[in-house]
Amino acid sequence: MRESAGDRLFAAGIIVILIVVGLVTLFPLYYVFVVSFTEPFEYIQKNGFVLLPETWSVGAYQYLLSTSAFVNATATSAFLATVGTALSLMVTSAFSFGLSRKRLRGRKFLLMMVLFTILFNPGIIPVYLLVRDFGLINSIWSLIIPVLTSGWYVILMKSFFDSIPVELEEAAMIDGCHDLSTFFRIILPLSAPSLAAFGLFYAVAYWNTFFSAVLYINDFTKVPLQIVLRNMLIDSDTAVGGATAVEMASDRQLPTQTIKMAAVVISTLPILLVYPFLQKHFTKGVMLGSVKG
């Protein structure tokens, strides 16, 4: 079919709108990145508005990486994102695989319990009391164990495991594999797209841990990166590594705004770097097992 002039005009209008929306969306990211690398004197000279710095500087990053508080917070967030994601994937995949096999005793009851947790949330105070009674207050594990798995992720991954033929298990058992070896050597390799998708979900959630840390962590040396970033962004006098932001600017001749922007870049960079490598598995992993026929 030949396109009419009206169709071409409509398509051109849609393209223009998408370009404008894309620029509006990307400009804040670009501005944060540019300001974080702007030479301090130039930033002050231009009254805090820089589109393209004449002189690039890494002074803000050098300062942040030299402060023990920021480094400790980054290490805590990295630990949560790696160890927490690995444990969550292990628990979620094992539980989902068990629920997907009809020979599991009490399968329907367990499935109902999972659905119950999706529909009804216990609330902040009961969860806090439970964490306190287990002695996890002020422990890094208080940010992992209470959110180790998700009922919704269990249901989605169970749907994926339902699509794997039972005959594969039977063939593996005939070859001498027991349940654990079948799970680790047969099922998990086939589940790579699903694990990559849900691993990204878990990693983002752990890396962005904030509210749980506010509730359970009292020692500032154990807080994740988001707590430090929040303190820096809302309060120019917040202590970071023993010095306030105002003292920072006077001692190092660094505007507080460049330091804040550098902290934002560091806090978002890991997820931005990981996502492209998992993108090819993302849609496939989420959609596998979602349609039955």
Automatic annotation (TrEMBL):
This protein's UniProt keywords: Cell membrane, Membrane, Transmembrane, Transmembrane helix, Transport
Coiled-coil regions listed: none
Main localization category: membrane
InterPro entries xrefs: MetI-like, MetI-like_sf
Subcellular location: Cell membrane
Transmembrane segments: 9-33, 78-97, 109-130, 136-156, 195-217, 258-278
Membrane topology label: Multi-pass membrane protein
UniProt xrefs under CDD domains: TM_PBP2
Domain of life of the organism encoding this protein: Bacteria
Biological processes annotated in GO: transmembrane transport
GO CC term (a single one): plasma membrane
Domain ABC transmembrane type-1 stretches: 74-278
Sequence similarity: Belongs to the binding-protein-dependent transport system permease family.
Listed name of the protein: Carbohydrate ABC transporter permease
Biological source species: Paenibacillus piri
Native organism taxonomy: Bacteria, Bacillati, Bacillota, Bacilli, Bacillales
